[in-house]
């Protein structure tokens, strides 16, 4: 039983443990995927600006993490004759200006807690294939006691989808904020949304 004070301590401690910690994962918002870049997605620059505004107005996330495609030699991921399914024109080349975070995100850089890079030597659509140089995305989320993840960024039908599916499969409550994304193939948005929902992901319009 313990003293009333001890019981109160236990209740408070339980309430603290039960607080659902939330992370925002900003996927691949890099100039390379925006208008003017090597593999542009229509609406990329607009999404970058909207995400920056969303983040600067928001105080609800416990942790904000960016991912970047950061290719050194990704093998057949790059092609001179890309099919835009699993081969692509060179993009996100490590160390180039295009592979940096989008300039709009510089306005919120003080709110970004971790920057994860992926795809150095192979294709990597999911942020869960990346690390910040020391820890994988999953290790970061676990260390930060994150239970719930919102995902935004580029592109909805490729790296956002892959990151969301890995997030759900890793046991995180996962939402995609689709207004803060842009797709390579906007015509497939419903099909891709249904695919994500089949993994238990909430796709918010
Ligand atoms: Zn890539």
What does it look like?
The protein is α/β, with parallel strands linked by helices and 205 residues long. The protein has one domain: Isochorismatase-like (Rossmann fold). 31% of the residues lie in helices and 20% in strands. The protein has 6 helices and 6 strands, in the order H-E-H-E-H-E-H-E-H-E-H-E. Strands 3-2-1-4-5-6 form a 6-stranded parallel β-sheet. Helix 3 links the parallel strand 2 and strand 3. The longest helix has 15 residues. It is globular. The mean pLDDT is 94. The structure holds zinc ion (ZN).
Throw out a few tags for this protein.
205 residues; binds zinc ion; Rossmann fold; alpha/beta; 31% helix; globular; 6-stranded parallel β-sheet
Major sheet summary line: 6 strands, parallel
Which second-level CATH architecture applies? 3-Layer(aba) Sandwich
Bound molecules: zinc ion
Number of domains: 1
Radius of gyration: 18 Å
Determine the mean pLDDT: 94
CATH homologous superfamily identity: Isochorismatase-like
How is the largest sheet built, in terms of strand order? 3-2-1-4-5-6
Q: What is the terminal-to-terminal distance? A: 49 Å
Uncertain residue ranges: none
Query: What is the count of β-strands?
Result: 6
SSE string, helix = H, strand = E?
HEHEHEHEHEHE
Beta-strand residue percentage: 15-25%
**What proportion of the residues is helical, as a percent range?**
25-40%
Per CATH, what is the topology?
Rossmann fold
Tally of DSSP helical segments: 6
Q: What is the CATH class?
A: Alpha Beta
How would the global form be characterised? globular
Q: What assembly state would you assign to the polypeptide chains in this entry?
A: single chain
- Structural class per helix/strand content? alpha/beta
